[in-house]
Amino acid sequence: MDKENHKLEKAEDKQVKLDEQGNKSEDGIDKLQTKPWYKKTWVIILALVLFFPLGLLLTWLSDWKLSMKILATGIVIVLFSLLIYSSITAKPLITVNSPNNGQEIETESIDITGNVNPAWSKLQVNDMNVELKPDGTFSSNVKLQQGQNTIKLSAINSGKTTELTVGVKRLTAAEIAARKVAETPKQATPTPTEKELSYSVISENKRGTLNRVEVYTTETSDDRLIKLNDKLLDQYKPGLTILYIDYFNDKTVASDYFSKQNDPNISEAEKDQLYTHYIANLVYNTNSGLKELVRQGDNQKVLKTY
Hints:
By secondary structure, this protein is an alpha+beta fold.
């Protein structure tokens, strides 16, 4: 009996221990589940990296040991201090907005503009101090000599110096005048209007397939006579009709030249005088079968073959 009671008590003690362990485990889970997000380690580390003021606040609200809190705070302060120091003591950067390097200037002076970073740097333009605006921008008027000019900029910050040069050319009066002439749009030379052909048709004599046209004209040059003949050929498109064109420089002669040439009562001397007004004609070459424009007179020649 005593032996059985002892076994029963031992079993009850074991159950109590199991119950206690189970409660502890459940308590531990509860603690993990109810732990605020801002006390979680990964949240604190992320805050320290992205926005350290918030990270430091979360560090001191966390369950970290005091030594870890002090260490994390010290690391952040050191890193932030180094960042600020490097920014304050950075070598200045000069940017020139105008003028462009190599630009040609017509005026006696020019405004040089740009900006310097960091904005608390000291700037000189051609050894003259120039004040920087709070945003680092600047503007300075520089006098120029005729010819090539070099504008020197120098910025200093914490003992570190940056230099930059901009070259411009001030043009002489002669160069400015030449530039204006070159820039003036050239007016196109108008093509002279070709003079109208001067002529009049005195008579047409159609006999069957033959059409003979007598023309008075003041045109005397070869090329003008050719243009006139081309025009009349376009005007008289007689199909199978044979076309002769006679050109005279006298209207009276043009009207009765051939009748007088065939009149036995007209002397040869008078006929020769009439011929001096016969300047050209379009005839058929019986050998080639082509039409020819022939200049008459002492220098008789074929002007064009059709």
